[in-house]
Structure formats: structure tokens, C-alpha cells
Write a structure and sequence with these properties.
The chain is an alpha/beta fold and about 750 residues long. It is about 30% helix and about 25% strand. The longest helix has 18 residues. The two termini are about 50 Å apart.
Amino acid sequence: MVNGVVSTGPNETFVQVIPFSGVGRAFSYRVPETLRRDVRLGSLVQVPLRGRIEYGLVVGHTQKLEVDISRMKMLAGCLYPVPMMTPDLLILMEWLQRYYAASYESVLETMVPAVIRKGIAPKVHTFLTILKVLSAAELAGLKRRAPHQGRLYAFLQEQGKPCLKTDVFRVLDVSRSACKALVEKRLIREFSETEERVAYKDVHGDIEGEALVQAFKLNPEQAEAADSIGASIEKNKFQAHLLHGVTGSGKTEVYLDSIRRTLETGGGVLFLVPEVALTPQTVGRLRSRLEALGRKTVVWHSHLSEGERFDAWMSIAGGEAHVVVGARSAVFAPIQNLKLIIVDEEHEPAYKQEESPRYHGRDVAVYRAMLNDAVCVLGSATPSLESLYNTQVKNYQLNKLTKRVDDRTLPTFHVVDMKHEMGKGHVPLSRALVEKLRDRFEKKEQSILFLNRRGFSASLLCPSCGFVACCNRCSTTLTYHRSDEILRCHLCDYEECAPKRCPKCREQAIQWRGSGTQRVEDAVKAILPKARVMRMDADTLAKRHRFREILADFRKGTIDILVGTQMIAKGLDFPNVTLVGMVDADLSLHMPDFRAGERTFQLLVQVAGRAGRGDLAGEVVVQSFTPSSAPLQFARQADFEGFLHAELEQRREFHYPPHRHLIRHIFRGRNPEKVAFVAEQWVRMLEKAGIEGLEIRGPAPAPLEKVKDYYRFHAWYFVGKVSRVIPRLAALKKDFKADRDVIDVLDVDPMDMS
């Protein structure tokens, strides 16, 4: 292989191509001479297969041909002049397929975006401009001989600059043949320019002037962490760092310093964030620092337009972009000379994909860094137990930031026992929280109220007959949305009109149980009618860029109180926020998940971290029916070490992750008896196989037994090393005579146990 070109001899070139059609293996093709310059490892090509032309990816070259060359088919075309996947991504593709027990088709479709496979054309603008200046007499003669040509020429002369061709014909009533004639006479010139569709083009950070070029002065803790990461970057060897910093400790400044050091060595940078909502803020900060240094930052995530995604990917593949910021899928961006990967808020479950291939973005980032001899920085105020365990066994290097920037104090933590508030009937807000909201409003300070449940009420209950409104397709209750008077299932989006009477006994005194963000919003407006209250959840953010607009208004101070779900719980920095209220802290604590305590502790700390990030001290009010629970008490005292010790000890006792890996095997189908039978038969066969190091639990109905008309059973496998067990499971699945009506999926290192 020379300069990336795959070849087997001086006169012939052969490549191996995996088609996107799902055949699951590579085929050998001859490369015509006209395509040899463009076809390289990672190129997207067109191949003849099964009597039609299909797209495929070049994954290797053939050295020993096992078929007659004369019968070997030729490539039909090459989509782009540059490869769409780098060599390390080709290795990563094989690892994803093996580790996550996924098909080549699903892996390829995930790693090579649909917009790239479609091949959207660039956005091109055509301009017209004067080429030869005519005298007044010459122009008058032109107008007499050819009035349309004369008017068009005079218009361009008046403008004095190149004009968009479409604008010219929209303003002037002239024929297109007149334009063609002027071009042929060389009186005007027609030319085209490609416009790059840049995501968040209008987004810039708060830092201006000399700060663009010079890094901020780091405090001693930040400097120590940055130097540690910088030393790893200089070694040009793989090293994973866990940056554990309390909320408001300035982790972003350490990231920026590490990015600067990497760019100075000519390396590329990948910056991952868990939510699309955090991308604009991160992009603004990076662009404000890096554009003056001549470094291009692009954005990649699924919520961009097709044009923005296409242009961003082509900019990355062509080596023009040095820094990529994006959500989970950006981990597959074809960055040239990748030397630094940053995974912000690494503990977030959003990094885990719930469709095949069910990869975890954080783990893939670490593996990709290893393939590139790069540095991977995992950052969080509440790191996952898996990452902390890796620091204990010396796989990762731990860097700590224990203080907030400028020695700002952590917010004061108040816990309200909601059992004492029940005498007043169902109220979403406690008296203590209401008093503090009024106080902050009078002081012109801002507040955030957090509740991780959208809608108005969680369920409808008839006290007379006990009827509960449930989804017919899923094992869950319907949520009441008062804004449009409907009951909606948040799993399958089924909806129906909210009844005024009980559908079963016709009783009028139906009750709405539980609170959602809509009810909290209404309660705040009733308490503070003059306050400017905004709700931010999936129901209010249907409009594109609405999230950015709301956060911009909140930062400007045009919103006094922000009510929202988990999307406002992390990564956002508002200096004037001095009060954060967590309306129902128990929601995540009672989930059927061994990570429930860890998730609750992380959420409490992250939500509390939104308060007191400026010069004013902050307060946090947590409402709970179980105020003595361990996660809440540890969060109240900001005792991360205590929580870590207690939780790890409990996991060690039960041999749960991170001490072992977990594989969740999900069976689903429309017939519950058939699903249960297939799951039981599979587990029996697995027990007979006696795979060493495999412990089986189940099968049993999943906590959410029915979702979208599919019944679900699952089995859990505890293993020491996934790479040793997955091939055995895959081999057994080939021999297992499963019912075609039952679908089964292996979920390696699952984050969702529902």
C-alpha cells in the first residue's frame, strides 16, 4: 500500500469491499484505471452486486486471488476523491462488530452517516459580474440592438459588484438567453462559488480580545491537571485521564489548555458532549479561542440539517477541520492525525446507544484513542464508578479539581421532607422552596426548578372504581398533558383525549396523580404572577434552535425562573442563578436498576452545581419523601469519597459492574408465551454449554414488560471478559433454532435496565 492506495501489482489493482446491503462479508473487485487515483482504504464506492449497483466501503486489498481475474467484476464508481473513513476507524469497525455482537450492516450504517451515503451535492451560488466596461455610447447601442442584454448589463454596472444570478432574474424581466449572449460576447462573467453550510455559524463564546490567542491563567489545581495531561500528549502514547472536578471548578479551561497543546503539535481533537443541547455552548467557547489561531472547529450531531452534516463531514475527511465537537456519533468522525479525545460529563447514560450496535461512546472513545496512540480525557463532577474503578486499578490516571474557580463556595444544601407537606393536599412545591423563590425574585436573581418528568400529571386515577389510564401498547400509565388536554404515552407516543369522567364507572371525581413540569410551571405562575417563567422540556422544544433561544434569554436575564427536565441539569453555566430546586428527588432512586443510587447521587450533585457559579452564593432545595436515603445524604454533604466507598463495597459484594461486565440478553415478540418459551429454551441450552466464566440470571419479564406491542423478557450474563464470551454466544446463536417471531438482542455493558 502506497499513500493509502491499495494495490497488488504494477498493472492491476484489487480491493475488498463490504457492501451496505447487509451481506455481512467483503467481496473482491478490480479497480479500473480511471479510479485508481481516488480509491483508497476507507473510500465509498459503487459496486455491482446481485444484478444492481450498490454502495460499499473499501476495507482492504486482495493479495492472493482465489478466483479467476477475468471473471472478477469492476468497481462501478467512487463517490468521493477522499476516503470517508480513516485506517483507525476500519480497525474500530471490526472491534465494534465483535465486542457488541453487531452486524456489519448496522456498524457501517452507524459509522458512515446516511447523508454521506446519499452523496448530497454542495451548495453552489452562481454570480454575474461586469467583465468589460462599455462607454455610454456603446451601452446605448447595445440597448437599441438587444434591449434585454442592455438592461441586464446596465443593472450589473449600477450594482458595481458581483450579483447572485437568481437575484438578478428575480428583479429584472429579461431572458436567460440575454445572459448567455453577454457571456459569449465576454461583456460579463458568470462564475460559481461553493458555500459551506456551517452549523452554529452565529454562535461565539463570551471571551474576546487577547484571550482568543492566550490561554487563561489557570489556578494551581487546574495548572497541575493541565500539565499532567500535557505531559501525556508530549509522549505521543496512549493514556486515559479521568478529570474529576467539582461543579464550577473550571474543567473546561483544562480542556482548552489541552486542546491548545495538541493543536500546537499538529494533532486533531475530538470533543464529545452527552447532549446535543450542550453543543452550542461548547462550540462557542472553542471557536472564540481557536479561530484566531487559524484552527477550524466543526460540529457533528444528528440534529443538524443534511447540508450542515454533509459539509461538516467533508471538511473533516478532507483534513480542513482540526477540532470536532459533537454528541455520541461524533466519535466516528474521520479526523486526521487524531491525538486528543475529550469526553465531557463522561458518566452520562446518553453516551450509550440503545439501537444496534449498542455501543457506549465513552468506551469507544477510549479504544479509539488507544488505536491512535492518543490521549483520552474523561471529565465529570460525578464520574461513573466504572471510570473511578479504572483509576484504582491504574488503567486511568486521576486528576482532581477540588475547589471552585476563585474559591467560590459550593451551594448550601437544604432537604425538605415532603411527608410533612402532605397535610395541605398534593402540592408540587414545598413552603420552604416557595419562600426562597419569592426572595430570589425580589432580589432580581434567577432560579432553576428541576423535575425529570414532563407533562402535567403522571397518571389518572378514579377513586371510586380504581381505574388507571394505561397505554394499550406499553406497560405504563398515560401522562396527562394539560396544555393540549391529552393523555400521552411517553414510550410509544400514543395519545387520546383526556376524559372528564372515569371511562369505566363515569365518576366525575377523577384524580390526577404525580407532578410534571407543566404542573410545576403553573404552580410557580400562581405563586409569582409577575415573574417571567419558562418551561424547557421535550414538549416545548419542537422548534429548531428553540433550546438555544431559551438559554440565550435566560442568560440575558429576560427569564426569572426556568423549569425543566434533565436537559438543564448539566454543563450549563449561568452566573446569576442563586437557587436551584429539585422538585422530586426520589424519581430516579426507585428505578429497578442496580445503578439507581449512583444515578440519583450524580443527578443531585449535577443539579446542585447549577447554583452559585457567579459572585453570589447559591442554595439548593431538594424535596424528597426519603430524605434519609444514602445518595441524598452523601450529596448533601458533598461527600463523594464516602459515596464511592459505600457504593463500590456494595457492588463488590454482589459482583456487579465495575467488578464484572454485564451482558443483557433481550427477547421480544408479540406473543408473551412464545417469547417466554424461547428465552427459557435459550438459557437451558446456554447452561448445558457450560461457558467458563459466565454466570446466568433469568430469564424473567423485563421491568417494562410491554413496549410498542412487543412483550419483553431478558436474561443477564455476568462475565469477566466480554471478548472471550461474545464469540461463544454468537456461535451458539447460529445453532439455536429460534422462532422467527421472536427477536433477541445482546446488549453489552447496558445502561438501561428497563
